[in-house]
């Protein structure tokens, strides 16, 4: 009716939208007449396509660091060395986001968010290397034994202080063989863009219509809500429509961890040029920060609180308070899912890292280099907020923070002849199972087993390198030129049933990339 005071759209959570100018044939949208008789103007049609979103971030890091290191005194097994230091780091970040206001094109209806974050960290650290046994002490099976003791104290202006030690040893029982091990703890504060500012508001904070996911009968109240004994489908084209809350959380806590490793390095005298290294590692992470997807939350008791069924108007208002609306909402909101970041899970992972290299020389054809490096995960157990422990080894889509692929590796062949060098690399990522919300899967028991999913193919690429180092003196001395080709055969990443069609954690959409470079040392 062209009113400047009446509601232009139904009220949502107490928010009322009105038009700012009377509707005329020049600015109104004709939704009744078809092609040929439609009265929508060209200007309005242009506004329908005017949905540009703009986001800009500027981050500044200022660092001051002082370190002193060197020998302290000589022990019977060798020199005792130490390092001490301190550093200060100041982080500043500003995010400016402009998005459509959902009452028209961006040129007539926009919403802007201007955010500023900052953090200051002071740290003190030290390490002592103690030679316990040396070669001259003639102790059987202990040619050398070194022990390292290290510690670090960090103070965050928004999280307080934390102290983390690390202990390590290196034991050489025989010529060419070194055994090593380490243990330590870690502390990782939430990223500025995870914790956000007031009420956890970040540039990604918003609420919009939820995507589709399956609600299993094991979820509390699911059968009464669905009217079935087998659960139902929420969001998407289903009869149950809801909203999703996105962004950070100002209540996030720091992520803590503990890790240890053992391994050996072998450089045999009987085959010069060969190096073999194997390391076993074990990592425990507590309170890892991520935004768990809805398909994981509905089968994990520790995440049940993220889904609210049949919310009241007060619950809807509380969940969306202070957040921008980024899309049209359903007429009837039957559920709320919180996709905000949180200290969502604990992780227990073990694995082996391999590194084998062999270099040999020829009389006329130059020097050749062979290499093999790989990482093998032996276990990858994940627990959501004290709930059931899931084995996530060789899957993707549920844990979006850490890769759980079982095998990744790289083979290499290199050649050097005078100033020339060339390398060929073969990269491999094994097949795995996609369990994200867009891949079909079923819950076979009460929150303990997930079956089905999408099988994702292996990803195999080849990289090439060729370089030339000038051996002349003068201005070309210590100058090198090179050409690199990544993904030389332009392989597409394997299809992954998610937005974009690929897994950004374990593959890249970038095809062949050719890089030319020059380096100079003085």
Note down, in words, how this protein is organized.
- The model is unreliable at about 440-450 (pLDDT under 50).
- This protein has helices at about 40-50, 190-195, 220-225, 295, 315-320, and strands at about 55-75, 80-100, 110-135, 145-155, 160-175, 175-190, 205-210, 215, 230-235, 240-245, 255-265, 275-290, 305-310, 335-340, 340-360, 365-385, 390, 395, 405-415, 420-430, 430-435, 440-445, 450, 455, 460-470, 480-485, 515-520.
- By secondary structure, it is mainly beta.
- The radius of gyration is 30 Å and the shape is globular.
- It is built from 5 helices and 27 strands.
Structural class: mainly beta
Largest sheet: 16 strands, antiparallel
Radius of gyration: 30 Å
Low-confidence stretches: 441-448
Mean pLDDT: 88
Determine the number of helices (DSSP H or I, runs of at least 4 residues): 5
Q: Report how far the terminal alpha carbons are from each other.
A: 76 Å
> What percent of residues adopt helix (DSSP H or I)?
under 10%
| Extended strand count | 27
Our estimate of the beta-strand percent is over 45%
State the shape.
globular
Describe the SSE topology.
Blueprint: H1 42-48, E1 54-75, E2 78-100, E3 110-133, E4 144-156, E5 160-174, E6 177-188, H2 192-195, E7 206-209, E8 213-215, H3 222-226, E9 232-234, E10 242-246, E11 255-266, E12 274-290, H4 294-297, E13 307-309, H5 313-320, E14 335-338, E15 342-361, E16 367-384, E17 389-391, E18 395-396, E19 407-417, E20 420-429, E21 432-434, E22 441-443, E23 450-452, E24 454-456, E25 459-469, E26 479-486, E27 513-520
Parallel strand pairs: 10-14, 18-21
Antiparallel strand pairs: 1-2, 2-3, 3-4, 4-5, 5-6, 6-11, 7-10, 8-9, 11-12, 12-15, 13-14, 15-16, 16-17, 16-19, 19-20, 20-25, 21-24, 22-23, 25-26, 26-27
């Amino acid at each position: 009716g062209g009113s400047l005071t009446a509601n232009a759209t139904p009220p949502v959570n107490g928010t009322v939208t009105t038009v700012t100018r009377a509707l005329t044939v020049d600015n109104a949208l004709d939704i009744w007449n078809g092609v040929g008789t439609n009265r929508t103007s060209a200007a309005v049609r242009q506004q329908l396509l005017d949905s540009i979103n703009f986001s800009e971030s500027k981050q500044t890091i200022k660092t001051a660091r002082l370190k002193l290191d060197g020998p302290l005194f000589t022990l019977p097994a060798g020199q005792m060395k130490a390092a001490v230091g301190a550093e200060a780091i100041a982080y500043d970040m500003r995010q400016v986001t402009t998005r459509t206001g959902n009452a028209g094109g961006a040129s007539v209806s926009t919403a802007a968010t201007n955010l500023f974050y900052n953090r200051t960290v002071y740290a003190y650290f030290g390490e002592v290397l103690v030679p316990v046994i040396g070669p001259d002490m003639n102790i059987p099976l202990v040619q050398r034994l070194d022990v390292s003791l290290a510690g670090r104290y960090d103070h965050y202006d928004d999280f307080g202080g934390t102290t983390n030690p690390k202990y390590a040893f290196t034991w050489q029982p025989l010529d060419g063989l070194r055994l090593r091990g380490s243990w330590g703890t870690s502390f990782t504060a939430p990223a500025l863009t995870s914790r956000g500012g007031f009420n956890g508001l970040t540039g990604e904070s918003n609420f919009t219509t939820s995507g589709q996911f399956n609600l299993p009968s094991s979820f509390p109240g699911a059968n009464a809500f669905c009217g079935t004994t087998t659960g139902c489908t929420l969001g998407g084209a289903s009869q149950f429509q809801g909203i999703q809350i996105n962004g950070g959380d100002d209540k996030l806590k720091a992520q803590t961890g503990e890790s240890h490793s053992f391994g050996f390095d072998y450089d045999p005298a009987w085959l010069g040029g060969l190096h073999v290294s194997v390391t076993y590692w074990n990592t425990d992470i507590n309170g890892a920060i991520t935004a768990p997807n809805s398909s994981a939350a509905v089968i994990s008791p520790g995440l049940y609180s993220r889904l609210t069924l049949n919310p009241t108007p007060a619950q809807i208002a509380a969940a969306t308070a202070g957040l921008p609306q980024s899309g049209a909402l359903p007429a009837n909101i039957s559920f709320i899912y919180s996709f905000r970041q949180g200290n969502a899970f604990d992780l227990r992972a073990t694995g082996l890292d391999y590194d084998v290299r062999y270099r040999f020389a020829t009389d006329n054809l130059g020097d050749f280099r062979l290499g093999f490096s790989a990482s093998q995960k032996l276990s990858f157990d994940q627990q959501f907020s004290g709930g059931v422990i899931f084995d996530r080894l060789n899957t993707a889509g549920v844990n979006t923070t850490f890769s759980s692929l079982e095998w990744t590796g790289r083979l290499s062949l290199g050649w050097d002849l005078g100033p020339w060098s060339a390398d060929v690399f073969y990269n491999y990522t094994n097949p795995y199972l996609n369990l994200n919300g867009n891949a079909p899967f079923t819950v076979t028991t009460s929150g303990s087993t997930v079956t089905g999913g999408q099988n994702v193919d292996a990803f195999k690429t080849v990289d090439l390198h060729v370089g030339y180092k000038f051996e002349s003196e003068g201005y070309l001395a210590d100058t090198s030129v090179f050409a690199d080709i990544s993904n030389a055969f332009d392989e597409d990443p394997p299809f992954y049933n998610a937005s974009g069609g690929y897994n950004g954690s374990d593959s890249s959409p970038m095809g062949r990339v050719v890089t030319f470079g020059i380096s100079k040392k003085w």
